[in-house]
Write a structure and sequence with these properties.
Layout (H helix, E strand, L loop, with lengths): L17 E4 L4 E5 L1 H4 L1 H10 L6 E5 L8 E7 L2 E7 L5 E5 L14 E3 L2 E3 L6 E3 L4 E3 L22 E5 L2 E5 L7 H5 L2 H12 L2 E3 L4 E5 L3 H8 L5 H4 L1 H9 L10 E7 L2 E7 L18 H25 E7 L3 E5 L3 E10 L2 E11 L4 H15 L5 H16 L6 E3 L14 H16 L3
Antiparallel strand pairs: 1-2, 2-21, 3-12, 4-5, 4-7, 5-6, 8-9, 9-10, 11-12, 13-20, 14-20, 15-16, 16-17, 17-18, 18-19, 19-20
C-alpha cells in the first residue's frame, strides 16, 4: 500500500519547540506547536491543567443562587453564588453516575437536580436529595458524595479565576504585573459590571494565534486599514500612529500600552461621539482627576491597553473594554467568548456609545474581528503547506521594545515553553 502524505500531521522536532538566541537577536517557534494533536493534548494537561484560568465575572452572579455554566480549559464547570454570598465553582458532573447537573447556561436555583436519577445538590455542592435513600442502608457516606469543587477558586477585582492544580501559587502572585493593569481598568470604570450577553464564535486556527494577535501592534495598520480609514473619514486624528510600549508582566502575561488614537468612552472625547457629548465626557475626566490625580487620570483616559493574562484571557481596554477568552477544541480550532465591561450606573447615552464601539470594532461582525479571523485562519492554512518549519518573533530584540514589536509575544511563548517542555507550573 502506498503511504499518503497527511499535511495536518506536522511532527514536532527532536530538538526545542521554541528557540531564543539573544546574541543574534533571534526568536523562533516551531510550527508543529500550532498543528500537532500530540502537543495540543500536552497543552490541555500542562498549560490548562496548571494555570489560573478565567471563570467569569462576579457580576454575572450577583444574587444567591445565581449561576452560569461554561467550559473552562475544556472541562465542564459551573459557577454559583451560595446562600452566604460566596462564589463556588463545581465540576459539572453528578457524583452518582456522571451526568451533567447544571443543564442551563445561566439562571437562579436553590437546588441542582440531576435529570438522570434525580440526585439533588444545593449551592454548596452538598448532596441533599436521593430518591429511595433507604435502598442504600446506613453504611454509605452520603456526605462524601457531593459535587466536586474545582481545586482552587480566587477573585481579583471582580474577576473570578479557577485552577485545577491544588498546589498552584496564589492568584495575586500569579497575576504579577498584570494586577496593576487590572487595577487601572477597574478603577477607571468605577462600579464595574459585565453587560449581560456575550459574543460567541469559533475560529479555525490554533488558540495561540489569537493569544499573539490580541497583543500584536505590528498588524494593526495593514490588517485593519479599512477601519482606520473609516475613523479618519469621521474626523479622528490618526496622524500619531500607535506610539507606546510592549512589555512582559511576568508568568507569561504581557501588555501593549499606547496613546489612544481614537476616543474612549471613559473620558476621551472625539468627533465620532458627537458635539453634545463633549461637556459630559469632560466632566467624567474631571472626576478621574479628583479621585486619582492628573497623571493617573491621564493614563486612564488617554491610553489604550491590550493585555494578555496567560494563558487565554485578554482585556482590551481600547475604545471599549472587552473581556475575551478563547478555548481550544483541537489543534486547529478554538471557541471564543467576549464580554463588555462598563460602569454599572453609566448614563444611557454613554452606554450606547460604549456598546457601539464594542460592536463596531471588536464584535464578530465589526471592522476588526473578521479581519483577525481571516488572518489567523490564513496562518493555519499556511502552516499545512509544508516547506517552512519555524515562525519568527524576533522583532524588537535589538532595542527597547515598542508597541509594534514582539516582546509581548515572546513573553507568552517563554511561559508556554516552560510548561509544555519543562514541567514548570
Amino acid at each position: 500500500m502506498t503511504a499518503t502524505f497527511d499535511p495536518t500531521r506536522q511532527l514536532a522536532p527532536s530538538g526545542p519547540l521554541v528557540e531564543e538566541d539573544r546574541e543574534h537577536h533571534r526568536f523562533r517557534v516551531h510550527r508543529s506547536t500550532m498543528t500537532s494533536p500530540e502537543i495540543h493534548a500536552r497543552e490541555l494537561e500542562r498549560v490548562f491543567g496548571h494555570s489560573w484560568l478565567y471563570g467569569g465575572p462576579e457580576s454575572e452572579i450577583r444574587e444567591p443562587g445565581a449561576y452560569v455554566r461554561r467550559p473552562v480549559g475544556n472541562r465542564a464547570v459551573f459557577m454559583v453564588r451560595n446562600k452566604a454570598g460566596e462564589v463556588k465553582v463545581f465540576h459539572n458532573s453528578c457524583s452518582h453516575r456522571g451526568a451533567v447537573v447544571c443543564r442551563k447556561d445561566s439562571g437562579n436555583a436553590k437546588v441542582f437536580q440531576c435529570f438522570y436519577h434525580a440526585w439533588s445538590f444545593d449551592t454548596d455542592g452538598k448532596l441533599v436529595g436521593v430518591p429511595d435513600r433507604e435502598a442504600y442502608g446506613d453504611g454509605l457516606d452520603f456526605g462524601a458524595l457531593g459535587l466536586r469543587p474545582v481545586a482552587r477558586v480566587e477573585s481579583y477585582r471582580g474577576f473570578v479565576f479557577l485552577s485545577y492544580d491544588p498546589d498552584i501559587m496564589g492568584l495575586v502572585d500569579y497575576l504579577a504585573g498584570a494586577a496593576e493593569y487590572l487595577d487601572l481598568v477597574v478603577d477607571a470604570t468605577g462600579d464595574a459590571e459585565i453587560i449581560r450577553g456575550t459574543n460567541e464564535y469559533a475560529i479555525d486556527a490554533n488558540w495561540k494565534l489569537l493569544a499573539e494577535n490580541s497583543i500584536d501592534g505590528y498588524h494593526a495598520a495593514p490588517t485593519h486599514d479599512t477601519y482606520f480609514k473609516y475613523l479618519v473619514s469621521l474626523g479622528t486624528d490618526l496622524s500619531g500612529g500607535v506610539a507606546g510600549t510592549a512589555k512582559s508582566l511576568g508568568n507569561g502575561h504581557a501588555v501593549l500600552e499606547y496613546a489612544a488614537p481614537w476616543g474612549r468612552p471613559v473620558a476621551k472625547w472625539e468627533p465620532l461621539f458627537g458635539e453634545d457629548s463633549r461637556e459630559e465626557i469632560g466632566r467624567l475626566r474631571a472626576d478621574l482627576v479628583d479621585k486619582y490625580g492628573e497623571a493617573r487620570a491621564r493614563r486612564m483616559a488617554d491610553t489604550n491597553r491590550n493585555m494578555l493574562i496567560y494563558p487565554n484571557l485578554v482585556i482590551n481596554d481600547i475604545m471599549a473594554i472587552t473581556v475575551r477568552t478563547f478555548m481550544p477544541t483541537s489543534a486547529d480550532r478554538m471557541e471564543v467568548t467576549a464580554w463588555e465591561m462598563a460602569p454599572r450606573d453609566e448614563l444611557p447615552q454613554l452606554r450606547q456609545r460604549r456598546l457601539d464601539s464594542f460592536l463596531t470594532f471588536l464584535g464578530p461582525g465589526g471592522f476588526a474581528t473578521p479581519d483577525d479571523i481571516e488572518a489567523l485562519e490564513s496562518c493555519q492554512q499556511g502552516f499545512h503547506s509544508g516547506g517552512l518549519e519555524w515562525n519568527d518573533l524576533s522583532r524588537g530584540m535589538a532595542r527597547e521594545p515598542l508597541a509594534n514589536d514582539e516582546e509581548q509575544m515572546r513573553a507568552f511563548w517563554r511561559q508556554w515553553n516552560s510548561q509544555v517542555t519543562g514541567g514548570a507550573r
